[in-house]
DNA sequence: ATCTGGTTAAACTATGTGGTTAAACCTAAT
DNA sequence: ATTAGGTTTAACCACATAGTTTAACCAGAT
């Protein structure tokens, strides 16, 4: 009795709030974010904010879990294909970096909050509908099939993640020390999409 | 007339404050840190805190610049040797990861604060006594000397940084998805010290 | 017409926080 | 003995913030 009755306004109030909270929390973190700012961003008032999500923590948890779910399901599903390793690597890196470009605040947001509250990871990981162990089984198979250096799959996994994610969170530093404009930085990332798979394949291929 | 008169207490009050502020700011960030907590951690009271560093921002800037200086000078000086590239890489990675292990909060702290205030980088980079361009000249020479794939030095530089730093800031996540105890995580990093140089050399060596 | 749930406005509480102040204390240098 | 700088204590101010409350408003459902 309370659903789908809106045709003109595309977003429900709850969605508007979550969108606004996402923006603010991603940029400023839990401590830096202000409920008033979120309300303003959502175009509503503070009272309504508390009417939907009773506390700041509730709202934050919703945003945090959503971000976590997004980045992990994206990661775990982009490997779900039957093409050979090199091809798979290309797809994974390309898709994942594209995702990160569109959601550049997510990794920094998650890592920062997680470093401040490492215990939250247990709770928050429950909202991820994909299991990491499955992913590793698949990766292990791919790696063993080919003529490659003996490679610890976990090591490889972390290396791929590092190479994809770090440049995104270190953007301000990279732009400064390389004196990149915004466009030049984007080109730099664009180039990585092509060169990272080569870099990684070289690293693990038998000589 | 106001110096070196202390023999028993190893640290001056100012140093005690800076140490305390470092701990608190590194763990909680600017917004999350409380002046009272810093005072407690330093074993003094709030009044004295403001007596030394008038404002929270002053104190934070001091801590931030110190962290920045530390991590960058360390990075830039570990490449300052005349050994062949592979050796140099081994040294760099080993020394840098050791440094990061001992200062595991620094990279996350800097990246988080820099993402929230990217404009601060200009000011803060002035406190780094080493220039990055010098580093790149040296790296370029090393890379061109050997029989290697044509490699963009900047790309290589970022890759090395990514592979060293990311695992440190992603520690809570890594520990959880790999189900690592603290000891196992340390072993994981220890292993990386040896395997990262191999990984990278393979990646850039001509086949 | 009325009822209901979403919504607003504005005032309000309680608490925490950065920062200040003033008085007293202690100790080492003069 | 006096001075001066570092230090403590404790009270204090101004302000911002999370969260609450109340009354009124409005639109769609009954």
How is this structure best described in words?
2 copies of one chain form a homodimer. With 207 residues, chain A is an all-alpha fold. Chain A folds into 2 domains: 45 residues, Homeodomain-like (Arc Repressor Mutant, subunit A), CATH 1.10.10.60; 137 residues, Orthogonal Bundle (Tetracycline Repressor, domain 2), CATH 1.10.357. Helices cover 74% and strands 0% of the residues of chain A. Chain A has 11 helices and no strands. Chain A is globular. Chain A starts with 12 loop residues before the first helix and ends with a helix. The relative contact order of chain A is 0.10. The N terminus of chain A is likely disordered. The first copy, chain A, binds a DNA duplex (30 and 30 nucleotides) through α3.
Question: What labels would you give this structure?
Answer:
207 residues, Tetracycline Repressor, domain 2, DNA-binding, 11 helices, Arc Repressor Mutant, subunit A, homodimer
Q: Which CATH architecture of the largest domain in chain A?
A: Orthogonal Bundle
- Domain module tally of chain A: 2
Helix/strand/pairing category of chain A: mainly alpha
Q: Which oligomeric form is depicted? A: homodimer
Shape of chain A from CA axes?
Answer: globular
